[in-house]
Amino acid sequence: MHIHILGICGTFMGGLAILAKQLGHHVTGSDQNVYPPMSTQLAEQGIRLMSGYSPANLSPQPDLVVVGNAVSRGNPEVEAVLNLGLAYTSGPQWLYNHALKGAWVLAVAGTHGKTTTTGMLAHILEQAGLNPGFLIGGVPLDFGVSARIGGRRYFVVEADEYDTAFFDKRSKFVHYRPRTAILNNLEFDHADIFPDLAAIQRQFHHLVRSIPGNGLIIAPAWDDNLAEVLRMGCWTPVAHTAPAESAHKAAWRYRLLSPEGGRFLVFHDGNECGTVEWGLTGRHNVHNALAALAAAQHAGVDPVQAIPALCGFKSVKRRLEIRACVNGITLYDDFAHHPTAIATTLEGLRARVGTERIIAVLEPRSNTMKLGVHAATLADSLRSADHAIIYQPQDLGWDAAAATQGAAHISVSASHEAILDRLARDCRPGDHLVFMSNGGFGGIHAKTEARLRQPG
């Protein structure tokens, strides 16, 4: 079957393309924004990419068009699909019909940490010999690919609350019907499609309503927004997670053994299970790990077996990923684009590097950021950086300088070239330079590396 995917370079749709190719289909796709790592991954899989949307991309006519949520009515390729009467479906529905149906689905939902936690869980199940299928919204370094069909018994999926398609405005995760569900956290996000937090909570409750009574929900004990969701009605056992010092009731706990989160003890039902020692930083990643351990146990992997697997977890591309070390300056690429994620990422790095300088360069690219929803909290999220540069594109819609007024360590720049000049002039050996964006950031990482390597 010839399957054509609209919006193929999105992390979710790119993963679908890989699954479809593994199932033996001929796969093509089109997208407006083509950039690594997804474009590179798809090219390596032998999947043909078409840049831009056009009716010509539908010739020869595919047997099925899978429509991503980034395209809508008015898109020339969408209009051609409808006018030609081609068969079409959404990505989440295709995923359920062809990969999830009949499998033990382990879904990871939440505002933050979905990609990393999904990668952790898939890695634990893989090391336990369960050969899981997975679809992850990034490229896990342990697998080198964002999706695979696996052995068809277990499937780990990143469960996004974003809408499904222009013709289905439910959250993607409503389609997945998991037996094991991690609800990592819940904050207001996606202001382009959700009017308020309550609207997101309703979608999360739709997910909760689909989990069977013999399943398991894993949630942090301290998240009041998730607690409200569960109070709407819950028919599934809930395993809570919490720090050891917390007063909350929780079956799963951790105790930090190092301030940056590189070592921590794991407890289940009051019993010590073992010590995780790994290369990740930040308390947020410890929270992610605890949830992954709980989900893995539900699928039959004992913590005694799962903890050594976590110790070897390499993380996911673009999650504080070291891109280069130039003249003693370390360059990182990070996907953080919500103030909470920005803050926790920088806090974790600060705990690891001590007093060494951290310079954060932020592109406020997400739809929510462009709307200015998080403008008031942006300066505080960058508090762990010694200096931060915010890129202000013409289409931002709000004044980043005004929003961060009074934060002396933050500057605003309207051009990549000005940012490059500043970094080349000010960076010195021992600095940690963190680029933060949920997009390609105009290739600024490679441009900065090249500029820093120039003599003199």
Task: Write structural notes for this entry.
- The chain is of the alpha/beta class.
- The chain folds into 3 domains: 2-91, Rossmann fold (3-Layer(aba) Sandwich), CATH 3.40.50; 102-311, Mur-like, catalytic domain (UDP-N-acetylmuramoyl-L-alanine:D-glutamate ligase); 321-453, Mur ligase, C-terminal domain (Protein-Tyrosine Phosphatase, Chain A, Alpha-Beta Complex), CATH 3.90.190.20.
- The protein has 15 helices and 23 strands.
- Strands 8-7-9-6-12-13-14-15-16-17 form a 10-stranded mixed beta sheet.
- Strand 18 and strand 19 (329-334) form a beta hairpin.
Terminal Cα span: 57 Å
Q: What is the assigned CATH homologous superfamily of the largest domain?
A: Mur-like, catalytic domain
Number of helices: 15
Spatially, the strands of the biggest sheet line up as 8-7-9-6-12-13-14-15-16-17
Q: What is the CATH architecture term of the largest domain?
A: 3-Layer(aba) Sandwich
Give the biggest beta sheet: 10 strands, mixed
Query: Helices and strands: which structural class?
Result: alpha/beta
Pathway: Cell wall biogenesis; peptidoglycan recycling
Domain Mur ligase N-terminal catalytic: 2-99
Catalytic activity: UDP-N-acetyl-alpha-D-muramate + L-alanyl-gamma-D-glutamyl-meso-2,6-diaminopimelate + ATP = UDP-N-acetyl-alpha-D-muramoyl-L-alanyl-gamma-D-glutamyl-meso-2,6-diaminopimelate + ADP + phosphate + H(+)
Cofactor: Mg(2+)
List its traits.
UDP-N-acetylmuramate-L-alanyl-gamma-D-glutamyl-meso-2,6-diaminoheptanedioate ligase activity, Mur_ligase_cen, ten-stranded mixed beta sheet, alpha/beta, UDP-N-acetylmuramoyl-L-alanine:D-glutamate ligase, globular, 15 helices, 24% strand, Protein-Tyrosine Phosphatase, Chain A, 456 residues, MurCDEF_pg_biosynth, Rossmann fold, 3 domains
